[in-house]
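ok posting inputs for the phosphoric acid mono(formamide)ester job
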Amino acid sequence: MNKVDLVGKDILDGAQFTRDELECIMDVARDFREKLTQRKQLRLVEGYVMGSLFFEPSTRTRLSFETAMHRLGGAVVGFASASASSTAKGESLEDTIRTVDQYVDIIAMRHPEIGSAQRAAAVAEAVVINGGDGAGQHPTQALLDLFTIKVERGRVDGNTIVLCGDLKNGRTVHAGVELYKHYDCKLIFLAPEALRMPAGITAHLRAQGVVVEETSELEPALAQADIFYMTRIQRERFADPAEYEKLRGSYVLSREIIERINPGVTVLHPLPRVDEITSDVDGLPGAAYFRQANNGVCVRMALIALVMGKA
Ligand code: CP
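and the output
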């Protein structure tokens, strides 16, 4: 295993990782995945407490962070909505973080504003892990996506990855491309014109030598894909509901289209899905999105253990 030092480091942005760090996290996650299958109770972070601060809705990220901490032998406190915290009384994010910092050793947080995790990290002694900051970044999702690609395809290098849907607002894809750039992958961005990947991100990737294609045509992109990463058109990111209605349903992946165009494709989705992958896809061998959600626990265990110096 490559030895890297993540002790005490905040996890805020996909761009912060080196390839050695990514490989180390993947190796540690694989080890925890094995231990989870053996149902071993670990005591690596016994005596430590995680603050689970979710100012925005979540099923997978919050529950897998909390499960990860419990599986490592630690404890969890927190809230699952801004309305259940003193944010509802007008407390600033900084004051909330300064307060929680008196109680916990590590903070996993989600917040609707871009840059909120950086703001939290600037005032916290505890390690801060970004579980999604608005349309900004979602680095732990990107790590578990990378892990899933390794498990499902055997390797990351050599794959063509199609990223589809709301690439403008999609924090999972914004974080993901910062990981894929360390590997020999071709990226295809498939989105309606209004939801294209921000031009700055695409230019930054190309400047680093990443092969990136952009298209709005589903079938030719699917035909090239080893991995098809579908994302939801996110209603909550639209100021104008009429604009959302125009764009929802832009791309739908069905069993029929997969079997006709590319039956060997691996389908990922950070979830939740709405209507962009039909339920008849779920039974295909390449439909990996619930296995992907399962991988959230061992990858978050790895991150917690590494940043706390317990891996
Ligand atoms: N993938 C993901 O972030 O899901 P949740 O919104 O349910 O946490």
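notes: The pocket of phosphoric acid mono(formamide)ester is lined by residues 58-61, 132, 141, 270-272 (CB under 6 Å). The first helix runs from residue 19 to 37.
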